[in-house]
Design brief:
This protein is α/β, with parallel strands linked by helices. It folds into four domains: 116 residues, Rossmann fold (3-Layer(aba) Sandwich); 101 residues, 2-Layer Sandwich (Beta-Lactamase); 157 residues, Alpha-Beta Plaits (2-Layer Sandwich); 252 residues, EAL domain (TIM Barrel). It has 24 helices and 26 strands. Helix 2 runs parallel beside helix 3 and helix 14 packs across helix 15. The chain is elongated. The N and C termini lie far apart (138 Å). The relative contact order is 0.04.
């Protein structure tokens, strides 16, 4: 099957046209031909059809070959133009070829025509392809020049071509600044060595390489460059690259945020856990490696946060974070676990003594008041310590034990520390079992009230009792409230417990009133929890009780703590006012340990301030505590409140308290809390 060609024939003779087509058909060329003989027809055909070849008779009146050729050339179509002629002189033929005709043939010798047509069609095709390639190359060149990425082509180690993005990337003004230069011109000696040793061998093997390198700018500064290298078939090297410093910075920032606390900038739990695991592993391998974990918790942070606001609370956390860092060496780590909890990992801490020295310094440092916008904020921390041992396998266990030790420290006294031991763990575990037991205990009435006498300090006259609950546990024996009241508060079981306490205490006072002297007017103080105050039926329950027992309201005193007040000030004031209407008295318990709240005392419908026993205990030893007690009693007297000192254990304390005009007191010096029998046999005789 021959080729199929569109052939336009410019010819005035029908016969000659047939001659031409026959010749081509003979030569196995399939064709679709069209004969024309005017300039107008030529214009139309050029416009309407894709012609593979034009065969033109030299002498067509009005459309001679030179004119036709010119028209074809003007059309910009690259169509082979073959002139066929009768008697055409050599001169004319040469001129036609010069003018751009592709071939010429004599009509009486058309044997060559088929071959000529084939050749010209083939060459036109090649020309067309070349033109297309050129167009594509030009487009690519434009694209490369406009590319945002730097692109360079190197031959024999030197830059042959660089696009504008490339030279700008390296701080140059023109491509000439780089063309001809050796490749290592843009890298430090160190980085060039890396290319030679690590990168080029891979490039040679894989024909390409992608990665990050450090590049040099014209001014000598360095930057991170993301590079793609490819070897082309002609052994030239194509470099495509871009500045990835910002990308790397963003990546680093993301990684940083994943491992750090946004508020303080300290490492977070994740990063801490990683470091703890490292310490655990190291301790397994090296006998002489010792570490310690400190669990820090701010004392009364919730109260500070609620009363002074979150902004100040945040400032305090940041301030504490800064202070903690002061005491650490580079190898140590301080992390924030969240809330007001911080953890410190002390590495290479040779012995318990050095650890305790550091802990004591931290405790002291954290006690210095902060000044935020002229506002003084007092703080302190309690610390649990775990001395790392080979027994530890996981970070969570270290944190759990340090937390337990911290909890112990805080329980005993704010602003102190405790070193973890196994007994603590057992106690913490027992706490869980206690919780289940507690529910049973309520049903089975395993609770009893003890009563601690309260005296007038001037004349040693008994004026009443504080009711203190104890749990008569079937297997653990008598349990003190410090061990179960917090659990009861957390679980909400404090409400049924205190319901029982109030009822029991009121009935007891009523019984004593009937049993002992007629003018018995001893009061009973009852401790309430924050949850009790929020109980909607509190007042109704008390009213019912007063009606039932016939007890006068003035014989009852309710003790609430400072922090309970702050938690919900407005609501608490309402409740206290309602109690007041029933002549029930109100004492602020543990006064001085909450966030210094002297300022709102005069707004509160209260009767007594109970000075916390931590101040009373330190009164002799510490001038500061004496001063605090002095301030509290003075203020209390000014506001017309009665001051009650708790935990009086020595006569010296009693003497000092009397000097300071403290009216009432309780404590082991007078009597411990006693059972009903003991009260009846020892106190009320
Ligand atoms: P609190 O109200 O501050 O009670 C005073 C605590 O000090 C009592 O501890 C008492 O036994 C102890 N104490 C009295 N005199 C001295 C002393 O001279 N030296 C020393 N070191 N301590 C003394 P207790 O009975 O263990 O009660 C602890 C806390 O449990 C109470 O602190 C109170 O907040 C709470 N609590 C006690 N009973 C109840 C209750 O029925 N309901 C509620 N919600 N809480 C209660
Ligand atoms: Ca109390
Ligand atoms: Ca108290």
């Amino acid at each position: 099957m021959g080729e199929f060609l569109n052939i336009l024939i410019i010819e005035d003779s029908e016969d000659d046209t047939k001659l031409i087509t026959r010749e081509l058909l003979n030569d196995n060329i399939q064709l679709n031909s069209q004969r024309i003989q005017t300039v107008d027809a030529l214009h139309i055909q050029l416009k309407n059809c894709d012609w593979d070849v034009i065969i033109a008779d030299y002498r067509v009146p009005g459309c001679e070959a030179p004119l036709a050729l010119k028209i074809v050339q003007q059309s910009q179509l690259d169509i082979p133009f073959i002139v066929v002629s009768g008697a055409i002189g050599e001169q004319v033929a040469v001129e036609m070829m010069k003018a751009g005709a592709h071939d010429y043939l004599m009509k009486d010798n058309l044997l060559r025509l088929g071959e000529a047509v084939r050749r010209e069609v083939r060459e036109a095709k090649i020309r067309k392809e070349r033109r297309n390639t050129e167009i594509i190359l030009k487009q690519q060149r434009v694209a490369i020049e406009a590319a945002i990425d730097g692109i360079a082509i190197l031959q024999k180690d030197s830059y042959q071509y660089v696009n504008p993005a490339f030279f700008k990337l390296f701080g140059f003004e023109r491509s000439e600044d780089l063309v001809g230069k050796n490749w290592d011109f843009l890298y430090s000696l160190e980085e060039a060595t890396r290319f030679q040793q690590d990168i080029f061998p891979i490039l040679k093997q894989d024909r390409s390489w992608r990665g990050e390198v450090v590049a040099l700018r014209k001014d000598g500064s360095t930057f991170s460059l993301g590079v793609s290298l490819s070897l082309s078939d002609d052994a030239s090297l194509i470099v495509v690259c871009r500045d990835i410093s910002e990308l790397l910075q963003a990546q680093a920032l993301i990684a940083y945020h994943a491992l750090h606390d946004p508020l303080t900038g300290l490492p977070n739990r994740t990063l801490l856990s990683e470091r703890l695991e490292l310490a655990i592993n190291k301790a397994q391998r090296h006998d002489d490696y010792h570490y310690a974990v400190l669990f820090l918790d701010l004392d009364r942070f919730k109260v500070i946060n609620d009363s002074l606001g979150h902004i100040l609370g945040d400032k305090l956390l940041v301030g504490i974070a800064q202070r903690l860092k002061i005491h650490l060496r580079n190898t140590d780590m301080v992390a924030r676990l969240g809330g007001d909890e911080f953890v410190i990992l002390l590495e290479e801490s040779s012995n318990q003594k050095t650890v305790i020295e550091i802990v004591e310094r931290i405790i002291e440092e954290c006690q210095t008041p902060f000044n935020f916008d002229k506002q003084k904020v007092f703080s302190s921390v309690s610390i649990g310590i775990v001395l790392g041992s080979r027994d530890y396998q996981q970070a969570v266990d270290l944190l759990r034990d340090a937390d337990i030790a911290m909890y112990r420290a805080k329980k005993e006294e704010y602003c102190s520390y405790k070193i973890f031991n196994k007994t603590m763990y057992i106690k913490a575990f027992n706490r869980l079992t206690l919780e289940t037991d507690f529910r049973k205990a309520l049903e089975q009435e395993e609770f009893v009230l003890h009563y601690q006498p309260i005296f007038d300090l001037l004349d040693n006259q008994l004026i009443g009792f504080e009711a203190l609950v104890r749990w008569q546990h079937p297997t653990h024996g008598l349990i003190h409230p410090s061990q179960f009241v917090p659990i009861a508060e957390e679980t909400g079981l404090i409400i049924p417990l205190d319901d029982w306490v109030i009822r029991q205490a009121c009935q007891q006072v009523n019984i004593w009133g009937e049993k002992f002297s007629n003018d018995f007017s001893l009061k009973v103080s009852i401790n309430l929890s924050a949850k009790d105050l929020r109980k909607p039926s509190l007042i109704q329950d008390i009213d019912n009780l007063l009606a039932e027992t016939g007890l006068e309201g003035q014989l009852i005193t309710i003790e609430i703590t400072e922090s309970m007040l702050i938690e919900n000030l407005e609501n608490t004031i309402d409740v206290l006012n309602t109690l007041k209407l029933r002549n029930i008295q109100v004492s602020i318990d543990d006064f001085g340990t909450g966030y210094s709240s002297l300022s709102y005392l005069n707004r509160l419908p209260i009767d007594n301030l109970k000075i916390d026993r931590s101040f009373v205990r330190q009164m002799q030893a510490d001038k500061r505590d004496y001063q605090i007690v002095n301030t509290i009693t003075a203020l209390s007297n000014q506001l017309g409140l009665v001051t009650i000192a708790e935990g009086i254990e020595t006569s010296r304390q009693l003497q000092l308290l009397k000097q300071l005009d403290c009216q009432l007191g309780q404590g082991y010096l007078f009597s411990e809390p006693l059972s009903v029998d003991e009260i009846e046999n020892r106190i009320l005789i």
